[in-house]
């Protein structure tokens, strides 16, 4: 009995010293916003967590640190702090104790009155109840002219460090601060959603896997940020809040994997550093996909020391991937400085954000906040903005490359077309000359020899008809007189020949058409007239055709109309003949206008630019 009495007195003495000298009194006011850590001291224990009593708390060790936030190391299981609140006003004051870390396992607030502990509230993922809003909060009511001592006890599992701000707000101040913070968080998620939609849109247009990887990375990053700021606790049932911490860890891992894979594609590591690219993929599969899955499965069975070893391996893996991407980035910048520099800047914000989080949450070395929110929100927002700008530049580069390739292909296609048309004309000339000079002359000689030995009028007539046919074929294949009589004259001769053998009425007019048109251009226009007439004979079933040639200051125009049966919309430009005409017009850098209405005829207009006036 004497020993228990002595222990109790000693514990009360120690706590009394702490209340008197180890803390500052927090005075209540409507704009209250006080960091509890700078007004109190932290005591920790590495023993098995116990029910808090004044006697049991005597065994806790004073944590000798000057941090402005509460940090419970890997092997700490339980901790407590004390603080004093004084309400010097004549009105009661409603306050709230706010925790920044969303995965507090168990926290209990006691009021110390006459050496006794009176529970004031309990929060945490193992408390059996969910938070009101994204942060854990414990309301505190201070009566008029009341000065009270409070004791806050934190419990956690070994192997899982905890770093958290604990801030005492007046209700008015908390509403104002929360409003600003929620606005900033909403702005962040707005940027993220717009970036995801933009990326998916770009992926739909280009089908490049780099944009899909970036979209998945943004989703994983958004889940990580949402968990980090406590939104997983809002959406999960109270009995499953511990799953929020699993979601948080998995989001970190998946976002890391997706970012590295995204960086491999964007930085074209497979092309510039193939060996390093393969090594990175192996590390991702072996050290992350396998190692971390095993850790999640057996994590609860590990001791603090074993867990620390696994965490060191994890941090070593992340460090290797950071350095690998950095090397790939330096190589890529040499080939594409603008995109590489933008990615480097966004990568800097990502690295700084990740490193600061590790230093804060795992090691307790650093805390950077803006407007009461962790730096990771702002670093991530800048990263997303810069990465989205980088994506926009990449899209511009892709379309620039495509346009360059299309222009090159167009030039090559034009060159091929020119060569084809030129070869076709050369072959026509060769065949025409062969028919006229060789085959025609041989038949003429054969007719002369036959007429000397025989007098058969019918056979001589057949010889004459064969000679005429060969001459007409040679003329059709190679209108040699274009250079002499010009295009209008060549068309008139062609129409005269057709008029002898066909009942189709063809009207032809020429107005101010240049006499010195280039022979190749005139030949192409003559072939177009031939092809159009052939289409009329074969398909149009027309009775009248109107052909007109016009000369303008900087161009020549061919107009061709018939009153035939026309054609449907789908068949307007599907024929081989019309495609041949289009090719010839394209080879002359001209315009081809085709209009056909079923039952109402067809109209063709060809406009060719020329230097003649």
Brief descriptors of the model:
613 residues; alpha+beta; Immunoglobulin-like; Heat Shock Protein 90; 7-stranded mixed beta sheet; 5-stranded mixed beta sheet; 20 strands; disordered N terminus
**Main sheet characteristics:** 7 strands, mixed
Q: Segments where pLDDT lies below 50 for 5+ residues?
A: 1-22
Q: How many DSSP-defined strands?
A: 20
- Classify the helix fraction into a percent range: 55-70%
Strand content: 15-25%
User: How many separate structural domains?
Assistant: 3
What global shape is seen?
rod-shaped
The mean pLDDT is 83
How many helical elements?
15
- Our Rg estimate from Cα atoms comes to 45 Å
Give the termini separation: 125 Å
Derived structural class:
alpha+beta
Provide a descriptive summary of the structure in words.
This protein is of the alpha+beta class. It has helices at 2-21, 54-57, 171-206, 209-228, 231-235, 242-266, 269-272, 274-298, 304-335, 337-363, 375-453, 457-477, 482-501, 519-540, 576-587, and strands at 25-27, 33-35, 42-45, 61-62, 70-72, 78-86, 93-99, 106-113, 116-123, 136-142, 147-155, 162-164, 166-170, 369-370, 373-374, 505-511, 544-551, 555-562, 591-597, 601-609.
Provide a quick synopsis of the model:
The protein is α+β, with helices and mostly antiparallel strands. It has helices at 2-21, 54-57, 171-206, 209-228, 231-235, 242-266, 269-272, 274-298, 304-335, 337-363, 375-453, 457-477, 482-501, 519-540, 576-587, and strands at residues 25-27, 33-35, 42-45, 61-62, 70-72, 78-86, 93-99, 106-113, 116-123, 136-142, 147-155, 162-164, 166-170, 369-370, 373-374, 505-511, 544-551, 555-562, 591-597, 601-609.
């Amino acid at each position: 009995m004497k020993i228990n009495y002595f222990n109790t007195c000693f514990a009360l003495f120690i706590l009394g010293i702490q209340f008197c000298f180890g803390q500052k009194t927090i005075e209540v006011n409507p704009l209250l916003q006080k960091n509890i850590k700078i007004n109190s001291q932290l005591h920790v224990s590495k023993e098995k967590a116990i029910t808090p009593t004044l006697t049991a708390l005597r065994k806790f060790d004073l944590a000798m640190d000057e941090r402005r936030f509460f940090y419970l190391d890997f092997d700490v299981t339980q901790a407590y702090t004390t603080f004093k609140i004084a309400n010097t006003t004549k009105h009661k004051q409603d306050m709230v104790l706010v925790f920044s870390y969303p995965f507090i396992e168990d926290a209990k607030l006691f009021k110390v009155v006459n050496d006794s502990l009176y529970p004031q509230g309990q929060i945490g993922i193992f408390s059996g109840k969910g938070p009101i809003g994204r942060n854990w909060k414990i309301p505190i009511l201070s009566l008029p002219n009341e000065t009270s001592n409070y004791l806050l006890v934190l419990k956690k599992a070994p192997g899982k460090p905890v770093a958290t701000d604990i801030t005492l707000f007046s209700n008015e101040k908390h509403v104002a601060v929360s409003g600003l913070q929620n606005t900033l968080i909403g702005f962040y998620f707005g940027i993220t959603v717009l970036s995801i939609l933009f990326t998916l849109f770009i992926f739909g247009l280009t089908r490049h896997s780099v944009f899909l990887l970036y979209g998945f990375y943004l989703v994983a990053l958004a889940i990580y940020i949402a968990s980090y700021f406590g939104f997983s606790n809002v959406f999960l049932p109270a009995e499953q809040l511990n799953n929020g911490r699993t979601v948080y860890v998995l989001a970190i891992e998946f976002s890391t994997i997706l970012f590295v894979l995204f960086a491999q594609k964007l930085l074209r590591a497979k092309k510039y550093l193939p060996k390093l690219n393969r090594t990175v993929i192996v590390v991702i599969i072996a050290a992350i996909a396998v190692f971390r899955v095993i850790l999640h499965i057996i994590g609860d069975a590990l001791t603090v020391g074993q867990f620390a070893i696994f965490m060191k391996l994890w941090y070593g893996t992340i460090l290797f991937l950071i350095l690998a991407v950095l090397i790939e980035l330096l190589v890529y910048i040499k080939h594409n400085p603008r995109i590489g520099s933008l990615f480097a800047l966004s990568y800097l914000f990502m690295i700084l954000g990740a490193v600061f989080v590790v230093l804060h949450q795992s090691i307790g070395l650093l805390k950077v906040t803006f407007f009461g929110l962790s730096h990771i929100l702002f670093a991530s927002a800048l990263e997303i903005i810069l990465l989205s700008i980088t994506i926009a530049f990449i899209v511009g580069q892709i379309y620039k490359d495509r346009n360059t390739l299309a222009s090159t292909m167009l030039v090559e296609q034009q060159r091929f077309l020119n060569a084809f048309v030129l070869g076709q004309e050369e072959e026509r000339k060769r065949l025409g000359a062969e028919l006229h000079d060789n085959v025609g002359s041989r038949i003429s000689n054969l007719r002369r020899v036959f007429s000397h030995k025989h007098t058969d009028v019918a056979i001589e007539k057949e010889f004459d008809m064969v000679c005429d046919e060969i001459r007409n074929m040679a003329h059709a294949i190679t209108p040699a007189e274009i250079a002499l009589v010009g295009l209008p004259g060549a068309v008139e001769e062609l129409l005269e020949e057709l008029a002898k053998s066909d009942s189709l009425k063809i009207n032809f007019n020429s107005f101010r058409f240049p006499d010195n048109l280039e022979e190749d251009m005139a030949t192409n226009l003559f072939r177009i007239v031939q092809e159009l007439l052939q289409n009329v004979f074969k398909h149009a079933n027309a009775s009248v055709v109107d052909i007109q040639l016009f000369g303008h200051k900087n161009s020549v125009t061919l107009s061709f109309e018939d009153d035939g049966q026309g054609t449907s919309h789908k068949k307007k430009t599907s024929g081989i003949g019309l495609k041949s005409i289009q090719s010839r017009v394209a080879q002359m850098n001209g315009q081809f206008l085709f209009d056909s209405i079923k039952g109402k005829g067809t109209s063709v207009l060809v406009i060719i630019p020329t230097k003649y006036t």
